[in-house]
Design brief:
By secondary structure, the chain is α+β, with helices and mostly antiparallel strands. It is elongated and about 60 Å long. The two termini are 14 Å apart.
Length: 141
Amino acid sequence: KGWEEAWTEYVNDWEPNAYYKNYIPLSTLNDQIIVLTSEEQKKRPYPDDVFISCYFNFRSEDSYPNPINYEDFETESIFHFTSDFYPCTVLSRGDLNDYIVKLKNEFVILNFPRKAIMFTNTEYSSDQFVPDMFRHEMEIP
């Protein structure tokens, strides 16, 4: 079967499975202005297939107090090193751009900006792992 024929058949036969019932794309979560605190999440939990990550560039030459004041250490010059994202818990929220977070490594960070908080898929839960998705080899003439 050619790709187009297989795609048409897939679209005509497709029905949403249980996965899609409560599916929220990461982009939707990441576009939200407010991140819920751990207390708020008890009443309004995020989906099971995501967790919250916080960006903080720990530099090996620095010594860190606990708690850390984000403004004292982070230059915000680079937000693209995924190794600098750590699973975290949002403890409290001040204004719309001011959080207190606790990293998985037990550091508490004050004055943490919203732009440094990102929702991340748990292992094997991104769109590419959704069951019953369209899969077909590409044919190159």
